[in-house]
Design goal:
Length: about 250
């Protein structure tokens, strides 16, 4: 039973899409946080330090969700590719402010798809702007629909937060991205790849100091039927509960 000690998980919303005036937050994110044992709390994208400083005081962990937008390539020292998706500066600015506050506090963070890429860039990493044209013999990394269909396998590396046993495991995941981690951010280590070499998950090297996990697939879409995807949320909520107890 959830009690007042249940950790609260902050989720910045996704920007409006297709001309809509409304923010987006797929209920699969919030439903999965609840099933994993946390209370979800959605944040509007107000990239003001005072606002972020106030709001982070209400939460014990963060989920940076996916996005229909690309991150502005200038944020990691590159020119945007022609034909790429537009960026949404308020989302990128808000996420950076939130990560700065989380870093100061050692607060647990989970990044999903665009959220993983945001964490990597925040820590000084770079991105592959277009997998199809930049990765030789690339697999399909974007499904034809946004459902939870399996698209490819990932190889989970030994002794990571997603694989506690000292062995390599292959698992099927969904996929809905055109970009991916290229240069890995400081303090992160790769814990999963696809057979074409694309990075599918990273975690902080010093997880005892701060829980940081990023996955390139969309576990919220599979969590109801897939144990690995649900484990992603369970690990985040577990870390948030421990952080809450310590603070």
């Amino acid at each position: 039973m959830k009690t007042s000690s249940t950790p609260v998980i902050g989720l910045p919303v996704s920007p409006p899409e297709d001309g809509s005036p409304y923010y987006n937050l797929n209920p699969e994110y919030t439903d999965t946080v609840r099933r994993a044992g946390g209370y979800p709390l959605a944040f509007p994208l107000i990239p003001e330090p005072a606002y972020v400083d106030r709001m982070i005081g209400y939460i014990h962990g963060i989920v940076l969700i996916g996005s229909a937008y690309d991150m502005d390539a200038s944020r990691y020292g590159q020119e945007p590719r022609e034909g790429g998706k537009p960026s949404y500066p308020d989302r990128d600015d808000f996420d950076r402010l939130l990560l700065e506050q989380a870093s100061e506090r050692g607060m647990p963070v989970l990044g999903i798809c665009h959220g993983l890429q945001t964490i990597n860039v925040f820590l000084g990493g770079t991105l592959i702007q277009d997998i199809a044209s930049q990765v030789p013999n690339a697999l399909t990394h974007r499904a034809k629909s946004d459902t939870g269909e399996y698209v490819h396998e990932v190889e989970l590396f030994p002794e990571s937060s997603l694989n506690s046993e000292a062995r390599v495991v292959r698992a099927k995941t969904n996929s809905a991205h055109d970009q991916a981690v290229d240069g890995v951010g400081r303090g992160l280590r790769v814990i999963a790849r696809t057979t074409d070499g694309v990075i599918e998950a990273v975690e902080y090297e010093e997880m005892s100091k701060q829980f940081i996990l990023g996955v390139q697939w969309h576990p919220e879409r599979l969590a109801a039927v897939d144990s690995l995807s649900f484990l992603v949320f369970e690990k985040l909520v577990e870390a948030a509960a421990a952080w809450q107890a310590a603070h």
